[in-house]
Amino acid sequence: FDPAQPAQNVTSAKLTPKYQALYEKKVEEVKKGVEWDRLSYCLPPGHPRWLTEPFLREFILTANTTYLVNEMVNDIRRVYTDGRGHTPADEAYPLWNGDSIGFWDGDTLVIHTTQLREGQYQRAQPDYSDKVETVEKWRKRDADTIEADVTVYDPEALTEPWHVVQ
């Protein structure tokens, strides 16, 4: 995930054959000037793409919920830190930003997100399936830097978990 170079056409993700073929086709189409992006239809970026959007973010902490706000299409993620579990499987369905629960480990916010819709990490980057899940660890490194340590799990699209630190 490098928001400074979203169309770099290089990924460190280890893709399954199906998703590798989709990615290679996408890269070839982009070279021809053909590219589809759901943002062109004013649809939300969704998560985990939320992580790659190069827009301002705001973190709002309350006693039981942390709100992660991205100015991109007023996109808000709600991370429940009140000890609840994920929505039961028989009540769950895919959402743009999924179902996020978390906890504080000292000064680090740990987030597990499930129930996501399929999408793409960024323009000209690989797609992810609706089986994708993420574990994020957010912490303030210094007065000017917040670090996001992210592991992406997607048994349909990835041959192994994809770990990135921004």
Q: What does this 3D model show about the protein?
A:
With about 170 residues, this protein is mainly beta. It contains one helix and ten strands; from the N terminus they run αββββββββββ. An eight-stranded mixed β-sheet has the order 1-2-3-4-5-8-9-10, with no helix packed on it. A two-stranded antiparallel ribbon has the order 6-7. It starts with 16 loop residues before the first helix and ends with a strand.
Shape: globular
Mean of pLDDT? 90
Distance between the termini: 8 Å
SSE pattern: HEEEEEEEEEE
Strand order of the largest sheet: 1-2-3-4-5-8-9-10
What is the radius of gyration? 16 Å
Tally of DSSP β-strands: 10
Lay out the secondary structure.
Layout lengths: L16 H15 L25 E5 L3 E6 L4 E6 L18 E7 L2 E7 L4 E2 L6 E2 L4 E10 L2 E9 L8 E4 L1
Parallel strand pairs: 3-4
Antiparallel strand pairs: 1-2, 2-3, 4-5, 5-8, 6-7, 8-9, 9-10
Outline of the structure:
The chain has 166 residues and is mainly beta. The protein has one helix at 17-31; strands spanning 57-61, 65-70, 75-80, 99-105, 108-114, 119-120, 127-128, 133-142, 145-153, 162-165.
